[in-house]
Amino acid sequence: MEINVALQVFDALSQETRLAVVRLLVTAGPAGMSAGRVAETLDCRQNTLSSHLKMLAGAELVNSRRVGRNIVYSANFNTIKDLVLFLMEDCCAGNTVVCGAVAQSINETVKEGT
């Protein structure tokens, strides 16, 4: 991940509701949640949530798809993985004993999410 992309992702995550949305969608897994359910769960007005989802989508942190009349959002596990790997790129000078388990866990989560 390039630093400018990482900065865009950090910018998107630097607001309480947006961070809560990403955490909720990570918990929901690949199935995701409808925008209405996200708004209800987070007690957020739908028009406010819409602007947050737009910013998260712009940073490629969430994906959306239409299911009937609903838009379903899910976490983009690849972007989240790339961000974590970016942060840990030089972890402990590459000591795989320390960082290997984290990287393996991230890869397993991404595989489940795709």
How would you characterize this protein structure?
It is a single chain. The mean pLDDT is 88. The protein has a three-stranded antiparallel β-sheet with strand order 1-3-2. It contains six helices and three strands; from the N terminus they run ααβααββαα. Helix content is 66%, strand content 12%. The longest helix is centred in the C-terminal third of the chain and has 18 residues, at 96-113. With 114 residues, the protein is an alpha+beta fold.
Characteristic key phrases:
114 residues; alpha+beta; 3-stranded antiparallel sheet; 3 strands
Identify the quaternary structure here: single chain
Helix share bin? 55-70%
Order of helices and strands: HHEHHEEHH
* Number of helical segments with 4 or more residues: 6
Short précis:
Helices cover 66% and strands 12% of the residues. The protein has 114 residues and is of the alpha+beta class.
